[in-house]
Amino acid sequence: MRKLTVIALAAAVATLNVAAAQPIRQTTNDWRDAFRQLEDEDWPTPNRERRATGAPGPDYWQQDVDYDIDIHLNERTKVLTGSATVTYTNNAPDELDFLWYLLDQNRFRDDSIAVMTETVGGGGRAASRVGGSMPEGVSAYSVRRRDRLENDGYGFNITAVTDADGADMDHTIVDTLMRIDLDDTLETGDSVTFTIEWNYRLIETQVVGGRAGWECFEETSDTGGDCIYQIAQWFPRAAVFSDYEGWHNKAFLGRGEFGLEFGDYNVSITVPQDFIVSATGVLQNPEEVLTQSQRQRLEEARTADEPVFIVTPSEARANERRGTRSEATWEFSAENVRDYAWAGSRKFIWDAVGVEQDGEGEAPDLVMAMSFYPNESEPLWSSFSTRAVEHTLEVYNSFAFPYPYPVAQSIAGPQGGMEYPMITFNGGTYGRPVEDDDGNLSYSLGAKRGLIGVIIHEIGHIYFPMVVNTDERQWTWMDEGVNSFLQFEAERLWEEDFPVRRGDPHTITSYMVSRDQMPIMTQSDSILQFGPNAYSKPTIALVILRETVLGRELFDEAFQTYARRWRFRRPTPYDFFRTMEEVSGVDLDWFWRGWFYSTDHVDISIDRVIEGTLNTENPEIENALAAQIEADRAESLTEVRNREDGLSTYAESNPEVIEFYSRTDRHAVTNRQREAYERFRDGLEEYEEEIIDRGDRFYYVDLSNQGGVVMPVILEFTFANGETDLVRIPAEIWRYNPVNTTWVYRTQREVVSVELDPLWETADADRTDNYYPPRIEPTRLEMYRSSSSSSNMMDDMDRRVTRDDIQDRPE
Ligand SMILES: [Zn+2]
Question: FRET partner for 755 with CA separation of 20 to 30 A, picked from 43, 159, 162, 780?
């Protein structure tokens, strides 16, 4: 730390001005206003549907689409055949002559946009092969997948679209979308009813990928080698018609998920008679499909303290027998859901427990948390699954709103993690223990963490986006980011030291300085580094907003307001941003700009700290100080060497030249200085005298913003006596100059060091410049041992070289 004595006393006392000490290194050419408002520039103009407050406006509307569906699973051919009677209600101020429907299974047609445009690297991996370099290999997995896509004939076969009178309706299929032309214009407030019939072949999830499908297990001594079916995107769903985009007719490319409308469903699912079925909604015919003891156990589970088996592991094992020809139909109904999924298998163990909550008159006071899983998932699933569902409801309720549906279900199967209203597909193969050669089961810490984490995540999605109905096809962060943030909060409340993967700010720094970044505000299908971009970065942005920028009280109030304002409605990013500012009372445009609209990172540096102390003008003090400064300086090297060489000065040989100045201490206090000091003191105001006599120290902290994102500056000062002081400076410190700034810390204690962001809360990507004075950085080095790996063909072929071989070489 450099020490500086403030010399110009009167001026220093009168103008202790930070700005005066501020070095402006940024030129006016590259100046940018990090605090410029986003309103009316990047954000749309508010209107009667969506207000500047972030709330839905007085004219907010959305469509209603209700379904009655019959669906049949052919277990042998893996074909689903269905018929849906749809009632579409037009609440828009627009007249509609046609409706668009989503045919998401068409993504798996071998001529779909999704399949035809798959590129090398694919799937959001950065730097997919950039021209020129030679490909190094082909994955057998991808070849097998392409074989399936080319040979198995996936995609919807739409066999009929008929109106209420049974007459055919014109319809046109465009990739994953279908336009249904209406017989009559659908006016505002009117409904139309029509029927769609279809069939399609289910995909094998682990071969083709995707969010649903089937998985068959190997037959073992005590299992039947049966299959689990997880069924989603299985019926033509209405595309979104919204106030801000009209029809949302962007093809499904596999990544950007689903924009959907709310509605009520009655669904009849016909499957082999020995299947256990889980579905969105509440079972309507338990007397027909459940045994009496199953119904009784379900009743007991409602008030049980811990999960109760409805189907036990041994019953599931006994149920795994092949060849049932008879079928059963499970009837479910669900209200106010934006999608519908189900799962079935004769392998399912089933457990359940009732979770009490305060429904606030809008939600049930008791929710059934339930899990369905095969014996292959045991004992992990009966230990954790339903309990993780229960925990998720408790944490999300506290952040958002009471869980609005009567059931919350977690299903094991091929899909590693996917959400639907009231039902989630979790875990995939990593949710299963492994068996060694001796038949002993074990699971890794990662398997435990992964399973609990994914169940929290997917159940959490029932709030976001299944209830807060965000536009996933455009903005992945609005469901994945917001939900991963709440997942992090729930994981941190699951168990002390739970190995949480994403959420603590330091976990994002390597991504934040990586190549191939794009802003969080990027359309879903175009995002590179998908996990860090759409999940981790928004999660950590929200953690920082909560813990560092707003504080818990303001954040939680604003976040809950957002969740409740947009429950069962469709928010845009701007509705979220505006609500958070409006309710917290804090301008956050700089934060959204840095974290959501840029690829800058956080890296603030302490460039220099200068300690200033006030000149007292008292010659008794100041002259001694000047003498001390002179004494601290090294003596003239030339004079030292002269002495060492035995050289004598002229004055030593001629003492008659020694006079007053040779004999007098240069720093001696003179009477004139004493008189001047008295006059100076007489001229001071009382408060000025007090300041001088108190002995304040002024620490000038020079900061530079190396990363680009303006952020609050958190400084911890450590004093000579070992005490510390943590100072939190709001981000507005950067408003005049977002690159360089100087801040003054005043204290009477001597500061020995300063640390920036000591709690690691801002995702500062380079901590080496966070300490003043700097620290030596430790690292562990691996010792390399030289090993020759270059091939030696002679040796490989067991040839021994002779001198003749060499001399014989051709010219
Ligand atoms: Zn998710």
Answer: 780
